[in-house]
Amino acid sequence: MRNKQFSQIELLAVGIALISAAIIYLITRNTQDIFSVLYGALIAIAGFHGIVISSKSLIDNPNKAKNLAIMQYAFRYIIYLVLLVVGYIFLHLELVGMLVGFVSLSFAIKIHAILTHGKEV
């Protein structure tokens, strides 16, 4: 389950989130923004774990793959929405900061692809 690429992408996402949090803090001087970015990154990394786990179940059940994929996709985005709402309303985190943290995983995947394959895939 945990292979080298998965760990590299995860570490790269954490690094990007930490750098983003530091830059946002330098601009706003608000410590809440640091937590917002890290919370968003945590949600994205947890979702990435879910994608990796669900992809294995799709390979194991090729006959039900389409229905399983649709259900897992919908469930994952409902969880994302709930966690972002909880962060914004109850934890009083900044929505923009959470979204910056959330896209840190996307940047990590793109950067990893460029570094390993020499181009964006």
TL;DR of this structure?
The chain has 121 residues and is mostly helical. It has one domain (4-117).
Key words describing this protein structure:
121 residues, mainly alpha, flat, cell membrane, membrane, transmembrane helix, ATP_synth_I
- What structural class do helix, strand and pairing data support? mainly alpha
Strand content: under 5%
How many DSSP helices?
4
What is the ordering of alpha helices and beta strands? HHHH
Radius of gyration: 16 Å
Give the termini separation.
Answer: 22 Å
The major sheet is characterized as: none
Structure description:
The protein has 121 residues and is mainly α. The protein has one domain (4-117). It has four helices and no strands. It starts with a helix and ends with a helix.
Question: Can you lay out the helices and strands and say which pair or pack?
Answer:
Layout: H1 4-28, H2 31-60, H3 65-90, H4 95-117
